[in-house]
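Phosphatidylethanolamine N-methyltransferase: structure, please.
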Amino acid sequence: MAVRRRLPRRPSDNATVAAVEKDSAPATNAPLQEAPPTGRTPDGTAFAVPKTRDMLQSLFNPLTPKTTFDVITLAMLSTHLLAVLALPLAARRVVLIAAFAFWRLCYNGGLGWILNWQSNRHGLVALFKRNGWLDPHRGGRIYGWLKGELEAKMGADYKFESVPIEFNVWLLYRQLVDLILLNDFAAYFFLCSCYLGSASDPEPWHTFLRTAGGVTLLAFNLWVKIDAHRVVRDYAWYWGDFFFLVEQSLTFDGVFEMAPHPMYSIGYAGYYGGSLITGSYTIFYASLAAHMLQFLFLSFVENPHIEKTYERPPLAVQVIKRSRGRRLSATFADVDGCALGAPAAAAAGTATAYAGGGASKASIRERPTTLWHPDLIVFKNFDIFRASDMLILLLLLYSVGIPLGLMWATRYMRLVLLYSIAQCVGWILFRTLVLGILLRKQSTSQLITRWYIKHGGNSEEAFSSWRAVYNTATIMTYGSFGLVALATYHWGSADFSNIVLFHTLGLLLIALHVWSSRSVYETLGDFGWFYGDFFARDPSMLSLAPPDMKLYYTGIYRYLNNPDKVIGQAAFYGLALISRSWTVFALALLLQVCNFLFSAHVETPHMEKVYGAQIRRDSGIVRTVKKAVNKGVGQMVFVDDVVDDAVGATRAASIHAGAHGGSSVASLLASTTKPVKDIILETRGLLSTTTARLAERALPTELASVGDADTYSLKLLPGAAWRAAGGTAADKSARSVYYLGESIRVAWQAPVSHSRRDWIGIYPVTANFSNQITTTSSKGCYVYIHPDSNLLAEMVVGDSVFAGAAKGTARAKDGSTRRKGAESAEVLQGEALFSSAALPFRVGTYEMRLHHGGTHAVLVQSKPFEITTCDSSDIVRVLGCSSEAAPSAGPALAEAAVQPACSGGGIGCGLNDAEDADALSQALLIIANKAFAVTDSRAAARVDGAGPGQPVSEASGDNVAVQTDVIEPLLSVHDPFSVDEVLDEKQARRFGYAIKEYFGVEFSPDVLVHAAKHSATVHDVTRRIVEARVALAAYSSSNIKP
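Here you go.
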């Protein structure tokens, strides 16, 4: 697939180097300095990072004092040696396989869960804070023991009390990592020793080659680990950036230029070296399973953390940061307004608000159709109702499906085989030779573009037609290869172990091909994938062209100049292995040779002409090998040419700042495991009833410790529907109605001694059959009513579950006391806010349940309430323009939302969609803000005397409250509805569902995600809605006469 390069904006100059993860994007390495690096905790505390000692030296050096952790680790290691010495061979193998599986699951499952918990909730640090184990006033003996253990492991520059708790928790986590990783290695090493000599090679030279290859892989694995540790050091080796960041610069050279995530990819080459040395299929499949678990660990634990820490912070973090920046700017504007005068300042603010989206005011008709309907990329974005997609499906059916049917029905194997081979050769030559000639002519004389202009078209149509032709050729090449593989598939009486091995290796090659292709596409984008720079050399010429037509070697191109030329045909060799066919192998070799010729005679000349000196000569792998040879020989055998004429270089690429090629592994594995998640969820549903019945038996014991349980209460505060109805006491039905996306407030009452982990969840009224215990998940729709500092230790930016606070104390009403005439109990009163992620975003009838102390034991339920929608003509009046006289929440809760101004006449004045799209845009802006709202909660000191009744007493807990704002990010209808052209799937589903419910037009979430990549605005979506409503209105049931 040749020079399909994506050339968007250059890497950001504002990126700060905060810390390092194992395989992050390249930075600059500063020479080692005497001064220790500076660490920074999530709350901004800076500290000097003490130097850590080498684990192997402190553990195995007999002269080094041993801590309790060291003794436990050595004792566990000795159990493996004891098993080898004491057990017979058969039992030894079983025990060691079980031990290896156990330690591998402890690594990928146990450590992965802990790291994911720490990354998302600061969970491990919060656990130590909550229990006070590292607090000298609360820790007691545990504190003294942990302090002694850590001080014994560290050097003279370490002071237990002078470093933050995050660093000490990380040191303790290191001990657990050492225990698991060393035992994992020991179990695998002794397991391999049990299978030495089990292979039966027919010739001695087979044994020699197998052993030599295994030793080579082991040596390579050792070099990878040593070189990786040289780069990342102990900090990233032990996942230090999950706990704190270090302000230092590192150079990701050496092994990090050879492969993405080398510590998880080529860093496990030793597994396959052990498999070769032993010659055992058992070792090979155990190694393969362990390696796959490591990729799962990378995909679901490390990659998400890398992305949000170094590349792209969560959308909520970006929205809150921008909102705070706007507030700061507004503060300075108020100061300037005193000098300029109020009218001038207001005018300046209005101009600023709309300046960012002024360039996007073009109608949706002036934008390319691909903004809403993305192209077919192989079978990605397939649409059964699109003519071109249907024709490709029919072409596949005629050329592949019918021959297969004839082969199985008539057994004309030879005829079908000849036909499939001829067809495969034809598509290979068409894709490389014919299309190569056309691309070369396009590069030299713009042949295709000139043809379309001559016949009434333009460059957009030329590029669009080329994309369809190229994608068809790619699909048919894959299909014809599959047909040949099926026609030649035959194993006869081959040994079963060989069949399994060849199929496994073939599937691995196919997986490598899929990963490579996805990485290439994610790096290049549509423009580069379809050779867009053959059709446009200026960003303004094509709609898909990136704004910066320059080369950046990032993503998978950091390691290979042309991944397609090197590993882009791996799947075809995999088919050859699976089918055990020399014919398929010959066709794969033909395609590889044709791709080499295509690259040499089409891509390289074009790149040299267009990009010149921007092209590099050596790939990352080649540079690493050259450096290793030069270092080993001691002189400059190879010259490191960073920039050259690029005789052999063929391809480059760029991606948005901070992205890297390894992300496609995560998306691939995530999509693969989705069915497994669905099965788990269904199983939970089947077991929920049984679990609930068992839990109900424990309820009396659970709730017996709750004092004044009858003083708990919940009361829903009225919303926009009640205010729109007039806000009078007579409108009782409107008090329990809320509009989709609207924040919901609830007033709560609880005893002063209530658990600070009490929480409220929202559930459909039919979700739980028991009133005493909740049996279904809240799916994130919950809020803690009165969190304390221990609970707030788990709070991260953008959390919506800590939006509850106490307002004051009062005396419970007489009806809630247990004995008539007894003094009323003192209770806490407060409010909780459900917004953004804590808000159910589906129309329906719901109820709230107040639970005790982090359990699912129900203390009190609210009355049922309804989430519904209003007519689109009433959105601005009801949700946007009404003077929202919300009940006072005190200083602990404040909903600060930016509401757009209501245009004159508005939608409520009988809107005609085709005539007043601007008014519809205002309504859609309000709905978009409801869908994309972000909760900004932060801890604050309590203000005494706030709220009704008496001030909150010290008996209720620490003097900490939560200040909560609801941020609605969009200011103008001309604002893109994404952050940096990114819209996550959850937000897209919410936005699409809101459009469907409020405006009656359904958009697929994939369409909205794709449009966001092209900076689509609220106004663009409005135009699309208008077109859809006009097109569908004539065929609606209300307009059809009987």
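Notes: The first strand starts at residue 38 and ends at 40.
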